[in-house]
Amino acid sequence: MAATTLLSTVLVLLVTGTLCNRDPIMLTVANGLTQTRHTYSSSVAYNGVLLGAMKQLRMEDSSFNFTTRETQDYGPYLVSVNGLAGSDEDHTYWQLLVDCVNGSSTVAQVGVGCYIPKPNEHIILNFTTY
Where is the Transcobalamin-like C-terminal domain (predicted)? Predict the structure, then answer.
């Protein structure tokens, strides 16, 4: 019975297009050490995670690339963006920021594998030190 209900729900979502909708987002790659920035346009599936939008962008734009490392407790960890990797020795890493309406930005409380962007949201991948 539960399988039939689940299948019916998935079919309704597919027919109505809910699973196919993609919302636009902006993704900025910022190097906080050199003050350089590059902004990309991407899209994310309805209620999809940022990692999916990043994979979509990587397929569409060869100038954007990234690597992740899977961690047992926290899921995907962003290791490098566009060839620049964080380093324990240099105390550098990629910080996930979200632009706020007032022009400030906040640190996301989850990583790229869990963060669900809102439509038209501006996400910043910021290379910085700890």
Answer: 70-128
CA distance 91 to 88: 5
Q: Tokens in use for 50?
A: 């940022």
**What is the C-alpha to C-alpha distance for residues 129 and 88, in angstroms, rounded to an integer?**
10
Q: Is 75 helix (H, G, I), strand (E, B) or coil?
A: strand
Cα separation of 120 and 24, whole Å? 5
For the stretch 33-87, pLDDT in tens is 999 999 999 999 999 999 999 999 999 999 999 999 999 998 999 999 999 999 9
Domains of the chain plus CATH, in order, are 22-129 (2.170.130.30)
C-alpha 91/C-alpha 43 separation (Å) is: 31
Predicted confidence band of residue 21 (pLDDT cuts 50, 70, 90): confident
Question: Do the strands 36-45 and 22-31 form a parallel or antiparallel pair, or are they unpaired?
Answer: antiparallel
Measure Cα distances from 78 to 1, 74, 124 in Å. 40, 11, 13
Is residue 99 within 8 Å of 33, Cβ to Cβ? no
